[in-house]
């Protein structure tokens, strides 16, 4: 006999098995004697399980993302520190910033020392390392929202020091080039070019001294603010002394050149006069002042037959070569371009003959810089475009433009003949960055200018995975819904038929078009209290929402402005819609400020389109 189960157990188990079997509808296999068959796991339960796991994965992914900075929490230190005494630098921020701060502070000394020792290749490598450190610090200042802190003040001075050392390296290389030219022109007995070398050296000496004054002027602020945070400033202070030594050495070399070159020129001219080869030459500049883009006439006479070659020099540099005309007259139209503001000197030469030097002045002008990020690649490359022009609309040719990322210079390029530029900002780290274009006026009679900032978000690996995981979650939910509906449908086939047949098609009631008065009130509210750019943007967005509500199923918010204009081009208000889109694109994407006529045009087009021509 088989063992008898405990009293009451078999009956209870049988009732439970019967109930489960009736719920599931069928069983798989047979259980032991006296026990019901094991029920299967439904497919809809598997789908729900997959959906739950997908939701859990999404939750874990988003939970791992750092919280964005919030202004209401940034004012409170987790250590209850007195942020007014620490320059608003908390311990957490300090652990990130101070190492980069110290690296940038100490990097300058090696650059200047290499320049003083004459190892310009090593100085260039040291300058690149200094630049990378400055970029890292600038990125931290932006990411940690330290734009109004001591760190930001140091970073601004540090960025200026990087530019000063770059100029010093270029100026030292230029002095070496003049040394080589001096030897060459002595051998060739070229009095005019020797005079050119001497004057170029004088201008270069002034530029180096001005560069040093700017670098030294920042020393007090750099040292005081760094020592406040316990940083060692000895290497930085040594860099200022090394800079002064470089300036002194270059000045001594230029004094020596001025004396020797003057003597060599006099000797060459004396020999030419003896042989009758020294011509008489005059020179003048009309007018004797101008601004960027103006044309000045540089002209004179030479006591030689027509066709005699005359060379014109500006600030000691060869500017142009012309030929004399009948009567010995010559002229060159000089367009004011890349030249410093202030007083300048020019002269002309014919053989060993050198004219008297004439001066003219160039006034400074303001500039404007436009900027846009055309597209952002997944590898962290931002393709940037823009333009630079004077306040009078004259394009700036050959100007240096830097793309600043989070406040520090990142990539540098030059403007074309029409003042436009195209620069790629590469290797941007994942995260949010603020980009601007900045025109460097060095060498121009112009003031620098910066563009409006553009914020970009460089995606990380998680940014790419989140949409995929989201789609997986949605797919799992959809699969679960399909399985559930199939199950319900299968159950309905064997049950009672639904009365009344298939459900009727839904009736979609479209909202009526607003009246002209309602449209005018909406336009006025949208433009109230904002500037023209924001008003145009608001009117366009409201118009898209109105069109989408009256044309369901077309997903109009996902289309570009031009696609929307093309979609309704054949309609009665297609022309007004196209006009509004043109103004919106010029304001939103080209960065142009709308005129009053633009605002009136957009207002009229907005009212006409959303009222479906109700103002005709």
Number of spatially distinct domains: 4
Tell how many strands the DSSP assignment holds. Answer: 17
Strand % is 15-25%
Q: Helix coverage percent of residues?
A: 40-55%
Mean of pLDDT: 80
Measured distance between first and last alpha carbons = 101 Å
The largest sheet, given as strand count, sense and whether it forms a barrel, is: 6 strands, mixed
Q: What's the number of helices?
A: 15
Q: Supply the helix-strand structural class.
A: alpha+beta
Which residue ranges are poorly predicted, with pLDDT under 50 across at least 5 consecutive positions? 1-38, 64-88, 494-499
Given the C-alpha coordinates, what overall shape results?
Answer: extended
- What is the radius of gyration? 39 Å
What does this protein structure show overall?
The protein has 616 residues and is of the alpha+beta class. The protein has 4 domains: 91-274; 284-362, Immunoglobulins (Immunoglobulin-like, Sandwich), CATH 2.60.40.10; 367-459, Immunoglobulin-like (Sandwich), CATH 2.60.40.10; 516-610, no CATH class. It contains 15 helices and 17 strands. Helix 12 (532-550) crosses helix 14 and helix 12 runs parallel beside helix 15. The protein is extended, with a radius of gyration of 39 Å. The N and C termini lie far apart (101 Å).
Please outline what is shown here.
This protein has 616 residues and is α+β, with helices and mostly antiparallel strands.
Key features?
616 residues; 4 domains; five-stranded antiparallel sheet; 50% helix; Immunoglobulin-like; alpha+beta; six-stranded mixed sheet; extended; disordered N terminus; 15 helices
